[in-house]
């Protein structure tokens, strides 16, 4: 059995009893960052072997993981934060498990996309998640132009180091849209910055933005 165990996106208390129990019962824990996940397990006094499983080694390690699962091992997959399988290597392992008739079960919990959406003030009846924005301006511009006529709320991950330039691009391509920056969700300095691209551009002009960011783009309601 492979369990996809959701972990906190910020506040370490945002983990379910079932997630803790599942991790304690696991024979092995797979993690993107073993040090970061190790801190979480130590906090809850979970003494389990953790091995690295990320985009760089997933193909190499999946074969041995499948062998262990077929032997009856209980293995839990966790991401750096939130629900594994969303913009991380979890998708690859899940797909391979399905191919080999190995059962996969979710242990639900924190998710930054949904947390940002429900507090955004944008329409929640229909939304699209695009994952991480590309780095190049031309690629971002192309994406933004494609969503210009969409009525759904569009959600992206963006780096704090690139967010100012991204907002400037939005000012050029989607000036009529409403923008929300959800930053440091569930942490001490959690913040939602709302407004038009031009308004947010002015807000960020004299600020240094830190922390993980969810960027939401939607119609004004």
Tell me about the biggest sheet?
5 strands, parallel
Shape: elongated
Give the terminus-to-terminus CA distance: 44 Å
State the share of residues found in helices, binned by percent: 25-40%
Low-confidence stretches: none
Number of domains: 2
What Rg do the Cα atoms give?
A: 19 Å
Number of helices: 8
Strand content: 15-25%
CATH fold-level assignment of the largest domain: Methyltransferase, Cobalt-precorrin-4 Transmethylase, Domain 2
* DSSP E strands, number: 10
Q: What would your notes on this structure say?
A:
There is one protein chain. The mean pLDDT is 96. Helix 6 crosses helix 7. The longest helix has 13 residues, at 58-70. The protein is built from 8 helices and 10 strands. The chain has helices at 17-25, 34-43, 58-70, 90-99, 112-120, 137-146, 163-173, 197-204; strands at 2-5, 28-31, 50-52, 75-78, 104-107, 127-132, 153-158, 178-183, 191-195, 213-218. It has 2 domains: 2-107, 3-Layer(aba) Sandwich (Cobalt-precorrin-4 Transmethylase, domain 1); 112-218, 2-Layer Sandwich (Methyltransferase, Cobalt-precorrin-4 Transmethylase, Domain 2). It has a 5-stranded parallel β-sheet with strand order 3-2-4-1-5, with helices on both faces. A 5-stranded mixed β-sheet has the order 6-7-10-8-9, sandwiched between helices. By secondary structure, the protein is α/β, with parallel strands linked by helices. Helix 6 (137-146) links the parallel strand 6 (127-132) and strand 7.
